[in-house]
Amino acid sequence: MGDVNESAVKRKLGIPSWRNLSKDKVLKFAAAMPEMATEVRLKLIEQFPAFKDLGKTNIDAVTEAHKSTLAANENSQNHFYKASQDQRDALQADLGRDDLSWAQREALHDRLDQNVRRVGEKDSESKQFMGAGMKVVAAASAAALGLGVVFVGGKIAGASEDGSEESQ
Questions:
Q1: What CA–CA distances, in Å, run from 35 to 9, 63, 142?
Q2: Dihedral (CA of 86, 92, 97, 103) sign
Q3: Do 33 and 150 contact (CB within 8 A), yes or no?
Q4: pLDDT at res. 65
Q5: What local confidence, expressed as pLDDT, does residue 73 receive?
Q6: What integer is the mean pLDDT of 30-57?
Q7: More confident residue, 150 or 142
Q8: Greater confidence, 156 or 91?
Q9: At what angle do helices 102-167 and 51-95 cross, to 10 degrees?
Q10: Would you list the DSSP string of 62-131?
Q11: Burial class (CB in 10 A: 0-12, 13-18, 19+), 153
Q12: Residues 157, 158, 161, 167: is their CA dihedral positive or negative?
């Protein structure tokens, strides 16, 4: 019966053997653990001793990718803000000219207003981007914590069942 459960788990994950358990399948594996018999769960964990290390590696990779993305976003933001400031400076210099008509001044004020609105939109966009990135990091951290809980829970449940069977 244990082999049938193990085979069913491998089928559910779409892998022919545990050596094919990739990083993207780890969360599916963890989600399937509560459905497994305790002895099967422990047997599978024994076959996959790097379970905890793989979870930590995934979290580290997500964290580094997030840091890199934030740095690239900050660089992009800085270039945008510099270009926007340069445009505002040029518009203000043009507004200081005495030979402009009322219509020309109004057009320059409109362009200045558009520039300021774009800066505000870029700021909001950046905050949404960073918020979404933090959600990814938080989800990855929660998944790692969940994997740890499942791993430790499986070990504790297995030890409890083994202890209760011996005492009967």
A1: 9, 30, 20
A2: positive
A3: yes
A4: 81
A5: 86
A6: 68
A7: 142
A8: 91
A9: 170
A10: HHHHHHHHHHHHHHHHHHHHHHHHHHHHHHHHHHT-SS--HHHHHHHHHHHHHHHHHHHHHHHHHHHHHH
A11: middle
A12: negative
Q: Give residue-wise pLDDT tens across range 77-95.
A: 999 999 999 999 999 999 9
- Read off the DSSP letter of residue 17: S
Q: Are the C-beta atoms of 9 and 32 separated by less than 8 Å?
A: yes
- At 149, which helix (H) or strand (E)? helix 102-167
Q: Which residues of 31-70 are buried (b: 16+ CB within 10 A; e: fewer)?
A: ebbeebebebbbbbbeebeebeebbeebbeebeeebeeee
Mean local confidence (pLDDT), 115-138:
86
Q: Is 9 exposed, middle or buried (0-12, 13-18, 19+ CB in 10 A)?
A: buried
Whether the predicted pLDDT of 43 surpasses 90: no
- Tokens describing residue 28: 């599916």
The pair of structure tokens assigned to 69 is 């993305």
* 153, 118 contact by CB (below 8 A): no
Dihedral of the alpha carbons of 38, 42, 43, 44, in degrees to the nearest 10? 100
Mean of the pLDDT values across residues 6-29?
A: 74
Handedness of CA 7, 8, 14, 19 (dihedral sign): negative
